[in-house]
């Protein structure tokens, strides 16, 4: 039974629960604390990690890349097993609890426990990205196709609201430490990591109690792992016969390289290229999150009028304009204005990408396996996008040149999207049109 309000609301609450990891751990408080804490005895950035001497900022970047690569390799197998065994929610819980507990353990992050903290950070990323695979795969299970865009936008909006709410509470503790017994700034930051884990686990209980379990398939010979690989091969074969889904995954891979890279390096660009103070960067992060809420709903409405592809193409054109302006931006006010536009289009393109893919895959019990391909595409785009950005900066010595490379990616993504018909509802009506 689909479009049940109680279940749809529960599904969106998981976005509220887990998005605090993206904002507090990945984008704001943890990176700042990491840079100030992961230092050698002389206070320098070159630290020892598992016998290797490495710069702390490079270690942070490599940890993110390693986590996403690991998840990209692991999630297809877990998804196929989940679909076969009917244990989608069980896998979602496992990754959720692993990520949340790892966040909570960052409370013990000091200069003496840097290696332990890096491992916890790595596990938190795997837990977050792994649980998202199964979370996303629930969308076609609980909603009809005509509701995908709205429900997806509602989920992203809940995530932005929830993450900002906890972020404000954490900043209150950090900036007004005298209200909390004059604790140190480091202790205030570590409390923030603990609250992320508690928030994530606590609110996740609502979707876990209401979302349906997966549908168990008839038992086959062999073990779950081998049958999981067989399911993956079956899904891959079906995608070969669905050109629209394949075309979308290719275009998504290209333009998402630009989207995700901008999201991960925006703060660094403001800090290193424009020399903005930390307070300004925090304001920027909050601004992006808040503006993303109306952006997600706005592009959902646009898709209802123009169809999914034209709405996505509109978002990509705005991203092209953003990269063009970023190359020339010089002042703090210009950076704030650009960040507002980033937030507006960030929520829209992420929400529409998820719902568009949901419309293009066939109706089946293999939704987790299908979304594992989506997840792998997303994670690999993050790895390649940040790699291209970093290499160009290293070779040319300027982040602005890296921004131009992202502009090229968006142009290519726009051209690839032109190959997909723009409709409000796809479903079976395009099965014959896909060969055109």
From TrEMBL:
Keywords: Membrane, Transmembrane, Transmembrane helix, Transport. Signal peptide: none annotated. This is MFS transporter. It is found in: Endomembrane system. One of its GO terms (cellular component) is endomembrane system. PANTHER family: AUTOPHAGY-RELATED PROTEIN 22. It comes from the Bacteria. Its main location: membrane. It is a multi-pass membrane protein. InterPro entries: Atg22-like, ATG22/LtaA_families, MFS_dom, MFS_trans_sf. It holds the Pfam family ATG22. PROSITE patterns: MFS (PS50850). One of its GO terms (molecular function) is transmembrane transporter activity. Residues 244-436 form the Major facilitator superfamily (MFS) profile domain. The chain crosses the membrane at residues 20-39, 59-82, 94-110, 116-135, 156-175, 187-208, 248-269, 281-299, 311-329, 335-352, 373-392, 404-420.
